[in-house]
Amino acid sequence: MPDDALIHDPNGGMPRLLEIMRRLRDPDSGCPWDIEQTFATIAPYTIEEAYEVADAIERQAWDELKGELGDLLFQSVFHAQMAAEAGLFTFDEVADTMSDKMVARHPHVFGDESRDKSAEQQTRDWEAIKAAERAARAQTGVLDGVAVGLPALLRAYKLQKRAARVGFDWPQTEHVLDKIVEEARELEEARDELGPDQIEEEMGDLLFVMANLARHLGVEPEAALRRANAKFTRRFARIEALLAERGKTPDQSDLAEMDALWNQAKAEDKARQNN
């Protein structure tokens, strides 16, 4: 029988979590669901947990953040346990690889380079180091290494950021705005004259340029859209509450009434933010 002392030690820290994961995956005594999982089946949960971390931060739900970070950490532990079982690598090797990377990428902290340089210079140095790492992995293309599995809007932002480093970029924000107008017209033409595939393509082009505008304005588009989603959710919930006071649900209302309530919710929201 395995020693359960560590499993039940409330101060067991990282060794406790690693042992719990090992036990969950034990082919003889572990959890059937955990045993059946693979890298591919766990990957969606990993992405979901990362978003829940971001959501807690966006809402400043600091009490929740500890748990969400734990959930995300558990995903790393899960993947590392499966890798160890397959003889690929261990969790300690994951931690060592990350430590080596951070030390190598911060010579101004852990090496003999001077810390007396601007944040912009440090960013350029960081990108140069990452470029050298990609070259060592035979990733020679400018866009190599931008993960395909990223959310599409975030990937568009990162692709354009990479291309801009080698000069493939509009020099001024006004040029991006002009391109947005052009893409909007093409989308309108596709809607009126073309089929679903072309409409989807033109919609993608417009979103791609919108991501570029965000980069030119110094805005991370994924964060901006998350914020807009949260605002819409908050204000629509207020519409539902106001309708409930009238003994109604949204499907018993109409656009004119809900639009008026939206304006009320918007005004209330702005008043709270200004207080």
UniProtKB/TrEMBL annotation:
Q: From the Swiss-Prot or TrEMBL record, what is one GO molecular function term?
A: ATP diphosphatase activity
Q: What is the superkingdom listed in this entry's lineage?
A: Bacteria
Q: Domain (NTP pyrophosphohydrolase MazG-like): give its ranges.
A: 37-110, 174-235
**Enzyme class, one word?**
hydrolase
Quote the Pfam families the UniProt record gives: MazG
The UniProt entry, under CDD domains, shows:
NTP-PPase_MazG_Cterm (cd11529), NTP-PPase_MazG_Nterm (cd11528)
According to its UniProt record, which reaction does this protein catalyse?
A: ATP + H2O = AMP + diphosphate + H(+)
A single Gene Ontology biological process assigned to it is: dGTP catabolic process
EC numbers, comma separated? 3.6.1.8
List the transmembrane segments.
none
UniProt lists the family membership as follows:
Belongs to the nucleoside triphosphate pyrophosphohydrolase family.
According to UniProt, the name of this protein is Nucleoside triphosphate pyrophosphohydrolase
Q: What species is this protein from? A: Lutimaribacter saemankumensis
